[in-house]
Amino acid sequence: MTAATVVSRDVAPMLAVDDVHAYYDQSHVIQGVSLHVGRGETVALVGRNGAGKTTLLKTIMGVVRARRGHVRLDGADVTALPTYEIARRGITLVPEDRRIFPRLTVEENLRVALLAPSGHREDGRASRQRDGHASALGEVFEYFPRLRERLGHAGQNLSGGEQQMLALARGFLTRPRIMLIDELSGGLMPLLVEQLMAILERINTAGITILLVEQDLEVALALGHRCYVIDQGAIQFSGTVDALRAGTDIQQRYLGLS
Question: Residue 165: which residues within 8 A CB-CB, separation 6 or more?
Fold first, then answer.
């Protein structure tokens, strides 16, 4: 799979993280991170285990509170907002552990996502909402046809790849402005990763902006328009996919690749 084609974007970033610091108790995990994601981009954040990738996503979502710095969505400061309000404004997180409901069926997991109110779209009357739900599920099945086949199966009985599809589909159903995706490829076979990458490219082309956290450099290079490398809670590289691909010293120093 080749690197995604860069699309035209607004000058002002959709998501801007400015000198953010975050802690677990007294442990200074995120140390002055600044990054931005333009409207329509897929931006990859790459790093080793323990580099701070997941904590940064949680800080953007308000699950972990930034002690310094700012997170802005379309120019509005969301740093101090509760997580549910950040989600209502159009940011959704697909977590590394997927967090699907194991005893609910695929259909029930998807319908739970449709219950969440969203401040960036009009909900309409109940009848229109029901029609909208059916339409939304139909759209999901265009991207994830395997989920239609597994509608009546409990989440805990899905394969790892199917669970990742369900987690992505659930995030997609919230109609986000931007999806934060934590470790798309984690624990999955290469063929499944290829399928998921193709789906993400389609979702991005359809207009959803993506910040993708990845440990697998090849996945990041294939999907990203731009890349950041994080290590020990700080950004160590920011640039184009081609620059990171050519930067063997960066790969060796911060990603442990030879």
Answer: 144, 146, 147, 196, 199
Cβ count near 32 (within 10 Å): 14
- Per-residue pLDDT tens over the stretch 60-86: 999 999 999 999 999 999 999 999 999
Residue-range domain boundaries for the chain = 1-90+176-258, 105-175
Task: Name the CA dihedral angle for 25, 59, 166, 215, rounded to a multiple of 10 degrees.
Answer: -80
Q: How many helices and strands in the chain, by DSSP H and E?
A: 10, 10
Mean pLDDT of the chain: 89
What is the distance between the alpha carbons of residues 166 and 160, in angstroms, rounded to a whole number? Answer: 10
Give bridge partners of residue 27 from the DSSP assignment: 24
Helix (H) or strand (E) holding 148: helix 145-149
The hierarchical CATH code for the domain 1-90+176-258 is 3.40.50.300
Q: At what angle do helices 160-173 and 190-205 cross, to 10 degrees?
A: 10
Task: Report the distance separating Cα 169 and Cα 95, nearest Å.
Answer: 12
**233 and 52 Cβ atoms separated by less than 8 Å:** yes
pTM flag (> 0.85): yes
> What six digits make up the tokens of 85?
């309000």
